[in-house]
Design brief:
The chain has one domain (about 1-205, about 215-255, about 275-325): STAT transcription factor, DNA-binding domain (Immunoglobulin-like). About 45% of the residues lie in helices and about 20% in strands. It has helices at about 1-15, 20-25, 25-80, 90-120, 130-150, 310-325, and strands at about 150-160, 170, 175-180, 195-200, 215-220, 225-230, 230, 240-255, 280-290, 290-300, 305. Strands 1, 3, 5, 7 and 8 form a 5-stranded antiparallel sheet that branches. It is found in: Cytoplasm; Nucleus.
């Protein structure tokens, strides 16, 4: 396209000299016909490239639908694994497919930028680049955004080192860990991608209660580092991960004037007993690559934070009930 465009542009500047005295010149008329043929060929080639891009975006949409189904199946397997069921939650195949699709979409994005550059140099009446390129850019942007937002997942649900088969029951004052992974292994090494962790970022509003009965939800704060840089693994086979280890969930009170220092459930006057309060960890990531910047977010499965082992069975019952009855953590 660039070669065709340069040839047309050169001929246009050399031969196109409008004027009444030249309009009767047979040689000039022949030059105009040759110039018109070059423009028609350029227009035909531009339309052909745009049609190929439309076809590729249609294929990528189909592929992305299949990947979303596979990702949903993986989430279900992971949920069952957390409940003690056998299975495999390996993310390597999904990571390969997500990365390949991301590379293809970013390559199309670069080609669209090049087409825009060509349009800035040479354009004409009914230029297909003027009408179709913005629509292709919007469609491509939507696909990339959807792919990247779904590619940020929780690889390891919150668990303590000795959790055994019950990873979603944590204890106050005990260390726990969680890990998020970006399945699209594309990142700008010159840009620091920071991941942050929040507990109960989307907490529900507090209920109205009489002043003589202070109520509130327990709020657990991250006492250790709540942000990390997303890094590639130690080996080329590993992906982009943010591994939060040795986290400590400190106890606070959201609303009311309840016992902020209390780490037990006996004297708590919240709307729920502690073993029924489900909490969420939210990971956020400031993603940037090839000029595209997005805020990505993913959440863990709901978990319960207890203060002593007597609450373990009740907390595990809450986890079981949720996972058997709901598929939306929020």
């Amino acid at each position: 396209l660039e070669d065709l465009q340069d040839a047309f542009d050169f001929c246009f500047k050399v031969h196109y000299q409008p004027g009444q005295e030249r309009n009767r010149d047979p040689e000039y008329i022949q030059e105009l016909q040759t110039l018109q043929a070059k423009l028609q060929n350029l227009d035909r080639q531009r339309r052909g490239v745009l049609a190929q891009m439309q076809q590729l975006l249609g294929r990528s949409e189909t592929l992305q639908e299949l990947l979303q189904q596979e990702l949903g199946n993986w989430r279900l397997r992971q949920q069952h694994l957390c409940l003690g069921a056998p299975g495999d939650a390996n993310l390597r195949p999904l990571e390969t497919w997500f990365t390949e699709l991301g590379q293809g979409l970013f390559q199309l994005r670069q080609l669209l930028r090049m087409l825009n550059d060509l349009r800035q140099k040479v354009t004409y009446e009914r230029d297909p680049l003027v009408a179709e390129t913005p629509l292709l850019e919007q469609r491509l942007q939507e696909q990339l955004t959807h792919l990247l937002k779904s590619a940020f997942v929780v690889e390891q649900q919150p668990s303590t080192p000795n959790a055994g088969k019950r990873p979603l029951v944590l204890r106050t004052g005990s260390k726990f860990s969680a890990r998020a992974r970006l399945l699209v292994k594309l990142h700008d090494r010159n840009h620091r991608m920071e991941a942050k962790i929040h507990i109960d970022r989307w907490a529900p509003p507090l209920p109205e209660t009489p002043p003589d009965r202070p109520r509130g939800f327990r709020r657990f704060n991250i006492l250790t580092s709540s942000s990390k840089t997303l890094l590639a693994g130690d080996s080329p086979q590993e992906g982009l991960i943010c591994d939060f280890q040795y986290l400590d969930g400190g106890l606070g009170v959201a609303g009311g004037s309840g016992p902020s220092g209390d780490r037990g459930a006996t004297s708590w006057q919240g709307p729920l007993v502690v073993t029924e309060e489900l909490h969420l960890i939210t990971f956020t990531l400031a993603y940037a690559y090839c000029g595209l910047e997005l805020e990505l977010e993913t959440t863990t499965l709901p978990f319960v934070i207890i203060s002593n082992n007597n609450q373990l069975s009740s907390a595990w019952a809450s986890i079981l009930w949720f996972n058997m009855l709901s598929s939306d953590p929020k």
